[in-house]
Amino acid sequence: MKKIFLFAVLGWGVAAFADDAAKPLYSNGFEKAEAGKLPDDLMVLGGEFAVKSEGTNKFLELPGAPLETFGVQFGPVEKENVAVSARIFGTMKGRRAPTFGVGLGGVSGWKLQVSPGKKAIELLKDQDVKTSAAFDWKGAEWTQLRLQLRKVKDGEWQIEGKAWAYGAAEPKAWMISATDKEDPVAGKASAMGSPYATTPIWFDDLVVEKVSGR
């Protein structure tokens, strides 16, 4: 009986450890957030962000003006072996479209950006575009984004990203990637947007997770 009890306790401990390991470092779907306000766990990098709702869904809204790039930071300060994901909604107005994305490593870190005017997704380090890949953004639908930064060996880091229509199957392969030889900067994850269409941009399901390195 004692052995059975010990095995049961050990089994519970392993399961609890596995659950902790799988638990995101940060997650916010805004379900419990108060409409019209900004959650305390978000750090604004400019812009009048506020929680809004449509039906039963709550999300973070960036207004359609002014026409600048604004963002929010969230989650713990991380350096490597980390991923950020979010779903983002934007619309076109005539031929004008917003740009939007997610980032890792704070203000000067890596960013995955959807650039509809270029029909592309881009990887940026700070403000410099390092590489791009074709991406046909339809507009007026939620787009899921995921960006991760991994240390693959001493002195080398891999940055990988993908974007797809929310509700569609997630692409199995990374759609865009880059290699960096410089030590990454530790910082928070972020989500950002530029409302060039003068219509609001919505952000939801912000998640930060640990990922495997080498």
Secondary structure tally: strands: 15
Q: What top-tier CATH class fits best? A: Mainly Beta
| Overall geometric form | globular
CATH superfamily: Exo-inulinase, domain 1
**How many strands, which pairing sense, and closed or not: the largest β-sheet?**
8 strands, antiparallel
Compute the number of structural domains: 1
As a percent range, the share of helical residues equals under 10%
Weakly predicted, low-confidence segments = 2-10, 12-18
Taking the alpha carbons of the first and last residues, their distance comes to 43 Å
CATH fold descriptor = Jelly Rolls
The average pLDDT value, as a whole number, equals: 92
Return the CATH architecture: Sandwich
Rg from alpha-carbon coordinates? 19 Å
Number of helices: 1
Structural class: mainly beta
Order of helices and strands: HEEEEEEEEEEEEEEE
Percent range for β-strand residues: over 45%
Describe the structure.
This protein has 214 residues and is mostly beta strands. The protein has one domain (27-210): Sandwich (Jelly Rolls). Helix content is 10%, strand content 50%. It contains one helix and 15 strands. It has one helix at residues 2-22, and strands spanning 26-28, 43-45, 50-54, 57-62, 70-78, 82-90, 99-104, 110-115, 120-125, 128-134, 141-153, 156-165, 176-180, 187-194, 201-210. The strands form two sheets. Strands 1, 3, 4, 6, 11, 12, 13 and 15 form an eight-stranded antiparallel sheet that branches. A seven-stranded antiparallel sheet has the order 2-5-14-7-8-9-10, with no helix packed on it. It is globular.
